[in-house]
């Protein structure tokens, strides 16, 4: 019986070790963080510079596109979504989908009201 | 989703009063806003490094990165407070002797500044809560509580901090940038 327990313990330790290695592999390196950090700073500067140019309607689009790239980088690398499970990724996307519903449906009401009157 | 409601309200009202919202946004200090964005991104970087160090069991580096994150977070709030002070001095706070020219635009302009204060204020509140969490983490890290086996509180606080960063990443262009060319 004691031999059985020992074997169990050994197996458990092995799994622990594997998980530790696993977790280690999937943690982004400081190099990746630094790359994202510098990209974010460049994009901040870029979005400021572009905002000074008159692009008409496209100013909003460009500003939000840059913001989207920035937030995606933060979520994927800083928040570790990139190496998270598929379920976690699904939760992230689901949140964005609900936000899309909220804004899209409300705006499709407000922006079309004058069609009727 | 909570901030989603605020973003939605902003979108609806900006669609209704595009000209006045643009005019009102010209009263913000874009340079301070840009600097503050950079400060917040730096704090996200130090937070990411704090989480990394907690995974690696580097106790001392973890404490240092937490302190740096707090300093940058306080720096952000300090700059934000300076901006708010400026708005008070320029009579741009709705309800407190609000003055805007042309006077006919004062209504929607108050709407813009109400949303501005609600959104940046709610964001700042999240930062203050974040600083409280970081204080707790710092005390615990001094006690060497976080190891490569147990660091979930650091990991989760990191995710919270980065989320607050993401909110600002959208607030900054929407409130400061999109109409400055006009």
How would you characterize this protein structure?
The complex is a heterodimer of chains A (117) and B (182). Chain A folds into two domains: 2-83; 85-117. Chain A is elongated and about 85 Å long. Chain A has 117 residues and is mainly alpha-helical. The mean pLDDT of chain A is 86. Helices cover 80% and strands 0% of the residues of chain A. The longest helix of chain A is centred in the N-terminal third of the chain and has 25 residues, at 2-26. Chain B is elongated. Chain B has helices spanning 2-16, 18-25, 30-56, 59-89, 106-142, 152-177. Chain B is mainly α and 182 residues long. Helices cover 79% and strands 0% of the residues of chain B. Chain B has one domain (2-177): Four Helix Bundle (Hemerythrin (Met), subunit A), CATH 1.20.120. Classes of the chains: A mainly alpha (117), B mainly alpha (182). Chains A and B meet through helix 1, helix 2, helix 3 and helix 4 of A and helix 1, helix 3 and helix 6 of B.
Task: Provide the domain count of chain B.
Answer: 1
Order of helices and strands of chain B: HHHHHH
| Number of individual domains of chain A | 2
| Helix content estimate of chain B | over 70%
Rg calculated over all Cα atoms of chain A: 24 Å
Largest interface: A-B, 43 and 41 residues
Element-by-element helix/strand order of chain A:
HHHH
Poorly predicted sequence stretches spanning 5 or more consecutive residues of chain A: none
Q: Quaternary state, please? A: heterodimer
Q: Strand fraction band of chain B?
A: under 5%
CATH architecture of chain B: Up-down Bundle
Shape of chain B: elongated
By DSSP (H or I, 4+ residues per run), the number of helices of chain B equals 6
> What is the CATH class designation of chain B?
Mainly Alpha
Q: Note poorly predicted spans of chain B.
A: none
Q: Please give the radius of gyration of chain B in angstroms.
A: 19 Å
Portion in beta strands of chain A: under 5%
């Amino acid at each position: 019986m004691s031999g059985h327990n020992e074997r169990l313990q050994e197996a458990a330790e092995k799994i622990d070790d594997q998980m530790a290695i696993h977790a280690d592999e999937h943690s982004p390196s400081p190099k990746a963080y630094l790359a994202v950090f510098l990209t974010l700073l460049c994009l901040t500067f870029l979005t400021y510079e572009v905002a000074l140019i008159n692009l008409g309607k496209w100013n909003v689009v460009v500003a939000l596109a840059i913001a989207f790239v920035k937030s995606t980088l933060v979520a994927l690398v800083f928040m570790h979504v990139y190496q998270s499970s598929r379920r976690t990724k699904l939760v992230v996307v689901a949140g964005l989908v609900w936000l899309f519903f909220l804004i899209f449906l409300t705006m499709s009401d407000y922006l079309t009201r004058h069609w009727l009157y | 989703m909570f901030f989603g409601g605020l973003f939605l309200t902003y979108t609806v009202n900006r669609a209704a009063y595009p000209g006045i919202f643009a005019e009102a946004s010209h009263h913000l200090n874009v340079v301070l806003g840009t600097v503050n964005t950079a400060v917040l991104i730096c704090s996200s970087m130090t937070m990411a490094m704090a989480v990394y160090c907690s995974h690696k069991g580097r106790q001392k580096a973890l404490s240092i990165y937490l302190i740096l994150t707090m300093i940058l977070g306080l720096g952000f709030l300090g700059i934000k407070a300076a901006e708010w002070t400026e708005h008070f001095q320029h009579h741009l706070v709705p309800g407190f002797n609000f003055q805007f020219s042309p006077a006919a635009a004062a209504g929607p302009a108050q709407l813009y500044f109400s949303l501005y204060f609600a959104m940046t204020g709610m964001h700042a509140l999240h930062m203050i809560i974040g600083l409280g969490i970081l204080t707790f983490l710092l005390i615990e890290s001094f006690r060497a509580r976080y190891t490569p086996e147990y660091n979930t509180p650091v990991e989760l606080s990191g995710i919270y901090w980065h989320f607050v960063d993401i909110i600002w990443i959208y607030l900054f262009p929407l409130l400061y940038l999109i109409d400055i060319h006009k």
